Amino acid sequence: MSPFEHGEVFVLDDGGEVDLDLGNYERFLDVKLTRDNNITTGKIYQFVLDKERRGDYLGKTVQVVPHITDAIQEWIERVAMIPVDGQEGPADVCVIELGGTIGDIESMPFIEALGQFSCRVGVGNFCLIHVSLVPVLNVVGEQKTKPTQHSVRGLRGLGLTPNILACRSTMAEDIITLYDVPNIWHIPLLLRDQKAHEAIFKVLNLSGTSKEPSLKEWTTRAEICDMLHEPVRIAVVGKYTGHSDSYLSVLKALLHASVACRKKLVVDWVPASDLEDMTEIENADAYKAAWKLLKGADGILVPGGFGDRGVQGKILAAKYARENRIPFLGICLGMQIAVIEFARSVLGLKDANSTEFDPDTRNPCVIFMPEGSKTHMGGTMRLGSRRTYFQIMDCKSVKLYGNRRFIDERHRHRYEVNPDMVARLENAGLSFTGKDETGRRMEIVEIPEHPYYIGVQFHPEFKCRPGNPSPLFLGLIAAACQQLDAVLEGLESREKVNCEIGNCLSDKKVFQNGYATKPANIITDAIYSYCNGLPCSAI
């Protein structure tokens, strides 16, 4: 999927590559979804074609109605029975998002299927919430409801009648409305205050069995986010910086970490190609502007990506961070960039490169994975949750993850650090602190003498949560705020981890990947945390 067209590709634990909306659901609901939670037209048609090839339809003519619509309903009912919140048994309520716009031909089979589904399950088992835009004429401040009227009429004409209207607008009115708020964490509070949950309970006959939502911690977090003023500037050096949705999970992970450290996040989007020497010749203003942003940042992040455009600019950014001791986090390609830059600058291998960008390089620091396919691009990457084993227990990444012996993080890549060059790189000062179970695939790289210089092959941003920031993003923000030493010292002094065979075992959770006997100073779901060196209430 093109990041310019779809935004980021979100990766699930089972390796499913899905729309970024599923990332929003995981972060807000703190659930772990699977690839089957993402229903697409292609999946449904493939499902029906496979059944036809097996002879399940006994030679009947396969049509959109009933075969495609039945397949959609069957898929929904099957997936709804799979628990995603860590609890046993199916959920009480299954949320189905039907994307697109009413009237689009692409969504017609899904609308027909849900119309049939609502009739089949009956009243009390189906609640349709229609999300619509209510534009405001700025000159007179008047809200116009015509778009909503037309979309509701279109829905009813297709066999679906909304039970609730969720109207997006810039103004608040005396109805259940989703007006603009200071930050997105206010939306659940806004819906609660307007008793939207009670309206849903009523439609689904759950009024007697449901409890009032417990949003005390969520409320505190939303309010704290509004009050943050002291900035922390992070330069994100990437290929798709003109479309921030391409790095949505990275942006959310930075936000969660900055709120945990009580800092107001300021992201400077730096087009990687603008840092290159050729841009200085072709567009001097863009070149100067890009370097000004990079040099003014408190921390630098190079996210994942594909293709050779902007690679030299990313290498220059990694070099600037290394030489000037600026906190740096490289993710996926960002880690590979850090290794290439180190080989060029420290080892003196001027032609060091990745075979992705230069197949004939004499010093391949990054190579194509042996098990990868060079003929089929779709779904052939190393995807999903994979285990990383720490090789050195006295390093920043281990301490940030709560002194665990191993972690599970999500991956999406075709290239990896060349294991044949690891010894030379480590002898020169690079430390590969995390590897896979074979010991030949590099997962985490650090420069021990640097204040914070970490690269990871995985994507830690995919498992961040508002109240549980990713450890590596937390480390980046803390280092950018000059708080990393205090954070690490606090973790070391307050955590007495009992390490047994296989991993560190204890009773309380520190991060989504780590456990400790006591909560760390910085952890947001503790009663108190040390974000700025001073006690502060939990968020």
Key structural traits:
9-stranded mixed beta sheet; globular; 18 helices; 3-stranded parallel beta sheet; disordered C terminus; 35% helix; alpha/beta; 25 strands; 539 residues
Give a verbal description of the structure.
With 539 residues, the protein is an alpha/beta fold. Helices cover 35% and strands 19% of the residues. The protein contains 18 helices and 25 strands. The strands form eight sheets. It has a nine-stranded mixed sheet, with helices on both faces. The longest helix is centred in the N-terminal third of the chain and has 17 residues, at 64-80. The radius of gyration is 25 Å and the shape is globular.
What is this structure's SSE topology?
Elements: H1 3-6, E1 10-11, E2 17-18, H2 20-29, H3 41-54, H4 64-80, H5 108-121, E3 129-133, E4 136-137, E5 142-143, H6 146-157, E6 164-169, E7 177-179, H7 186-193, H8 196-203, H9 216-227, E8 231-238, H10 248-260, E9 264-271, H11 277-282, H12 284-295, E10 299-302, H13 311-323, E11 328-331, H14 333-345, E12 353-354, E13 364-368, E14 382-390, H15 396-400, E15 406-413, E16 415-417, H16 422-427, E17 431-435, E18 442-446, E19 453-456, H17 471-480, H18 484-494, E20 498-499, E21 504-505, E22 508-509, E23 515-516, E24 528-530, E25 535-537
